[in-house]
Design brief:
Blueprint lengths: L1 E2 L1 H6 L6 H10 L6 H9 L7 H11 L3 H4 E2 L11 H9 L18
């Protein structure tokens, strides 16, 4: 997912992080300068759902404008044959069955 807060804010005439921070504080979301920097720069560590609600309410947008999917970055599933070959080189490994209990220590 790509975080798109800065563009969503700019589309509404909000050009500074401090301006948005004041608007969020007016709605009860008081956040630190460090957290605001992460939100504004596009690389937040975490965004809680209740914070997302406040951000959407202040900007008058939906989550679809703030969170943009990036399906190209999702790894493709590995087929069973390719997975075996990658793990062992070129041959398959078959597990051995255990025949009974191990001996106690001496």
């Amino acid at each position: 997912m790509k975080w798109n807060l800065r563009l969503a804010a700019a589309n509404r005439g909000i050009w500074k992080a401090s301006e948005l921070q004041r608007m969020l504080a007016a709605r009860g979301m008081v956040i630190s300068a460090g957290k605001m920097s992460g939100l504004w720069s596009g690389s937040p560590n975490t965004v809680r759902l209740d914070e997302l609600d406040v951000i959407c309410a202040v900007l008058g947008c939906g989550t679809d404008e703030l969170l943009l999917p990036e399906p190209a970055k999702v790894p493709q599933p590995v087929t069973e044959d390719a997975g075996k070959q990658a793990a062992t080189g070129t041959r398959a490994v078959t597990p051995r069955t255990r025949g009974g209990r191990s001996l106690p220590p001496r």
